[in-house]
Design goal:
Rossmann fold, alpha/beta, about 45% helix, about 290 residues, Helicase, Ruva Protein, domain 3, 13 helices, single chain, 7 strands
Amino acid sequence: MKTYVDCYSCFLKQALSATRRAGGTEEQQLSVLRRTMEILAKLDQGAIPPEIARLIHHAVREEISCPDPYREAKQASTREALNILPELRQLIDNSENPLDTAIRLAIAGNIMDFGVMEDFGNLHDTIDRVLSQPFAIDHTEELKELLNSSDHVLFLADNTGETVFDRALIEKIQIPVIYGVKGSPVLNDATKQDAMEAGLQEVATILSNGSDVPGTLLELCSEDFRNAFEQAPVVIAKGQGNYESLSNAGSKVFCLLQIKCPVIGEDIGAEKGSIVCRRSSVPGEVIITPD
């Protein structure tokens, strides 16, 4: 996905939020904002949002000397989600179509995103909404068909806390799962430590991608991860950052997300608040979605 003009103000808000979470003084906050504006002023044409966010969060960590500004918020998100894991499992097991319900719940968990909002609200309200609302883009049948014909799946994590919702889905996938996480902290994206705190090691093989991009830029990932991506017959990519970086990554990639940003809504062709299961295109291909 390209970077839109409206992304610039979001980058500034994100930088300020991260600096404040790290306990930055007013002077440090101003310094980070100035550094962010310098980064934005020097952008290469064609830079996409996740690679820009990576540079900005480097600046925050350098200024504040804090390796993980979102650490406390991530731990709290995991605790909150684990508290309702039994409810998620019950909703899945009691439904007529357990895998469909598990996919919807995984998308519901995508609301736990501090890169877009400071407070993601009540999880139960979000679950009720996502379980009942229609998909704006619905390629779930294609995803299920590919899962049925594959020997394993690469599942790309997004936010911490959301990982618990991913766990509930993975428990219903009948093939081995490799769970891809960030190599080091950025925003509230899940690292290996975060995934293990959510119990993902019980249902999947956790694999670090070796990168601190809030998305998946393969050229910045480790060789092991790139090999895993290449060899995977199907890839589930959670969240907006993975959509931004993998929307044209080929037809084996399925992006599961809630649209929390009007810019991404414009790019994907759906309104803010929509839920999406979208099969990725290849460069130059146009995905036709139903009206």
